[in-house]
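Subject: complex prediction, re-run

Hi both,

The earlier run crashed halfway through, so I resubmitted it with identical inputs.
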Amino acid sequence: MLNRIVLIGRLTKDPELRYTPNGVAVATFTLAVDRPFTNQSGEREADFINIVTWRGLAENCANYLKKGRLAAADGRLQIRNYENNEGKRVYVSEVVADNVRFLESGNSGQSGNNGNNGGQGGQRRGQQGDQQSNQRFNDDPFAKDGQPIDISDDDLPF
Amino acid sequence: MLNRIVLIGRLTKDPELRYTPNGVAVATFTLAVDRPFTNQSGEREADFINIVTWRGLAENCANYLKKGRLAAADGRLQIRNYENNEGKRVYVSEVVADNVRFLESGNSGQSGNNGNNGGQGGQRRGQQGDQQSNQRFNDDPFAKDGQPIDISDDDLPF
Amino acid sequence: MLNRIVLIGRLTKDPELRYTPNGVAVATFTLAVDRPFTNQSGEREADFINIVTWRGLAENCANYLKKGRLAAADGRLQIRNYENNEGKRVYVSEVVADNVRFLESGNSGQSGNNGNNGGQGGQRRGQQGDQQSNQRFNDDPFAKDGQPIDISDDDLPF
Amino acid sequence: MLNRIVLIGRLTKDPELRYTPNGVAVATFTLAVDRPFTNQSGEREADFINIVTWRGLAENCANYLKKGRLAAADGRLQIRNYENNEGKRVYVSEVVADNVRFLESGNSGQSGNNGNNGGQGGQRRGQQGDQQSNQRFNDDPFAKDGQPIDISDDDLPF
DNA sequence: TTTT
DNA sequence: TTTT
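This time it finished cleanly. Structure:
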């Protein structure tokens, strides 16, 4: 009934931008979030948390975030599950963010930028077939190897 | 660097209470948290989110929470991973809650109770060997089948 | 750049429903949120936190919430300030909630209700001049005595 | 019963560090948090939110935060009230933070620093009477002019 | 493997 | 001005 999460961490890689068959942008990336304590050998571990963003925010993330950058994500925790190729149920957890803040300006130029994303403008890309349009969904947006698509635009929560 | 989550949902089962080899109480349960939208067939789905609590809060959860009850959890999202018996890496996500609120009083009696847990009192159970002491940790506190213990008291974050 | 708050508490009074000159619904109420500790005389104090909701959510709150009911609010903390009649600047803090959960079903009937609000449907009331339409904004939506209106519909954040 | 807030913003001034009569450190500062929308004249306004931190975290904030720096605060919203010198009740809202993250390293040196505070170490300053010890509490930790102290160490929540 |  |  209520599900709200806020994270601050660093991207483990550049974001990946894909499009649904209907041309809706989706970006995925992973934040490394340091734990607030050290383990028994004195090292600080991190949680690696998958983030998904949609539409205009997805495109902003793809444009402005890079591996190593510090970012904040605000959204909801989602637990999906699917059957893998060995017929076993696999659970995937990810944060569906409706708000991402870019906490580092990217030391090359970009002055005047406040480190903010440009809100939640919901632009929808056309079917122009550019170089990114071959990136389509599979069962797990964080998986590399393509499973048949089972996420359609009808699933979109907003 | 910052990791904060708040959930409200219903328990899918009664909590499970276990103890580390050193006698520290741990309770685990799962909250069904309704999604804020319906899917393409008009049904409201839920996310099933694992919760872990420690010490006095664990014992309060075990005492006052039951299957179906409404509860709020406030904590941090943790992603653990371990190698399963087939040598494959499995990812487990869970919310380590430092605050749980009991939002239903349990319609039988219990008047005067405010629906609150009793804070974070950190009582530590002795090694009396009572009927619960055979519940020990394995790799995944949410798994039923016993793997060798790899969580010791040294891991405790607080 | 990021501002997210989640509260659970009890309403100190029934909500108040008003409308902007353009017919947009606004509900205000106060949540008493118990502090997580007791003071030096052993009493648990509470924070009394003003909540504002808009549009369809406002009307749902007015319909389903009552004095004493338990509710959760999720939103953003806003600090407004205005000059009072003595020319002094007054600061008003309130939570602008985009999500409110009704955690008690209202013991009279209402079965089938899940305790949820009906989402964020943004219905806008017409200017029919019914018995509530004389409730208009002043400087402080939580104040009783009418100051000249300075919140117009242009201020609406969504 | 539950009260959790996360903010990211910039300090409007350097933090102020004071001590209670018993030598417990308290730091106060204000975060300017941009609103997620622009007003009717196209300007982005901000909320100016008071933050209070205690003990070791207070001393870290005083040492590492400066006017203009970006920071995240995680805590609880508190609404205090007191009677001012004209016998009028004044309401003060502030976030009591148990976690503050320094999101900018302070471009001078300090390499190797992760931008994190050093946790919640609760050091307590002795009564050495150094140059800061004349900074004592009054009714409102954010007020400049001294009212008689009414916050004693007994009020400390942790 | 899931709750109302 | 405050709720159970």
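The first strand of chain B starts at residue 2 and ends at 11.

- K.
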